[in-house]
Design brief:
UDP-N-acetylmuramoyl-L-alanine:D-glutamate ligase, disordered C terminus, 10-stranded mixed β-sheet, disordered N terminus, alpha/beta, two-stranded antiparallel ribbon
Length: 300
């Protein structure tokens, strides 16, 4: 029996940033995926002592050639058949885009059922916080390869060059973007003082929403992408995966905020990843392809 035949494909390759302190990037995604039962191959795109939002810090980005060589090693690893998904997040510089794309293609060539989730970490409501060349690379090279993308609303605005002031515009932009499934975080909510996660596929439009938490720690997008991927790999249908992902992330956020934490406290709230108790509102929206006028009704 070969190495690949002896192991069921359930490993996930996560390509994102690494911080010494905190729960963002790989620190959030790897913890969540491993807690939910997936071995992880973790690839750091940049190494930082903490999230830049806490203040200026040393930034170590691997040279482009060395990063590409490491990724090429993974492509020809004898264990590549273990891999069931790739999740990419924050990239350190534009040269990393091609290496990520090549790895995704290699994984899919080995396992045609493998998923690629692209979390295009490029900006927020303040605008881009990466080089424009890097953002363009993600848009032009990675999104077309993705089965699922998980931008926040402001990233989707930039990626589609569309102002997203309301639910109708956000749904239309998500449907028009290359990946067949889009999970848009920080989406417009229908409840007062709320925020939402909007899931748009070719046939469904779903909104999971909860109340807004003031001054949230960083890492919510990284965590959401990883948990949603784990839910799908566990066989959950889209609606359930969206609701349980939103509940888990909101529960961890609310508990961290109540304690006054400046970072998500995943190690303390690990149980919330598997069995969240938080209540979130799940709505089925009228899909843009079925109506010119957006509307919504509560999911029964």
């Amino acid at each position: 029996m070969s190495i690949e035949q002896s192991v069921a494909p359930r490993a996930v390759i996560v390509v994102s940033s690494h911080v010494a302190r905190g729960s963002v990037g790989n620190r959030a995604a790897v913890f969540a995926l491993e807690t939910l039962g997936h071995p992880v191959w973790a690839v750091p795109t940049v190494v930082l002592p903490w999230h830049p939002g806490h203040g200026r810090a040393t930034r170590i980005v691997p040279p482009t050639e060395q990063f590409a060589a490491l990724m090429a090693d993974l492509e020809r690893a004898p264990w590549l058949g273990e891999v069931t998904a790739v999740l990419s997040g924050y990239l350190g510089e534009p040269g990393q885009v091609a290496a990520v794309a090549s790895l995704v293609k290699a994984v899919k060539a080995r396992n045609e059922k493998a998923l690629y989730v692209c979390d295009p970490v490029i900006g927020d409501k303040g605008g881009l916080y990466v080089a424009e060349a890097l953002a363009q690379g993600m848009r032009d090279q990675l999104l077309p390869l993705a089965d699922i993308a998980t931008p926040n609303r402001y990233e989707l605005e930039w990626l589609t060059d569309t102002k997203l002031d309301d639910m109708r515009a956000t749904m239309a932009a998500a449907l028009a973007a290359p990946p067949p499934t889009m999970l848009v975080t920080s989406a417009p909510a229908m409840m007062a003082s709320g925020t939402g996660n909007l899931l748009v596929t070719q046939t469904q439009a779903l909104l999971a929403e909860h109340r807004t938490v003031d001054r949230p720690p960083n890492g919510l997008g990284d965590l959401s992408a990883a948990v949603f991927l784990a839910r799908l790999l566990a066989g959950q249908p889209m609606a359930k995966a969206l609701q349980s992902t939103t509940a888990a992330v909101y529960e961890i956020l609310a508990r961290t905020s109540k304690r006054g934490g400046d970072e998500l406290q995943l190690e303390t709230d690990a149980q919330s990843l598997s069995h969240p108790m938080a209540q979130v509102e799940l709505r089925t929206l009228i899909h843009p392809s079925r109506s010119r006028k957006a509307g919504a009704e509560p999911r029964v």
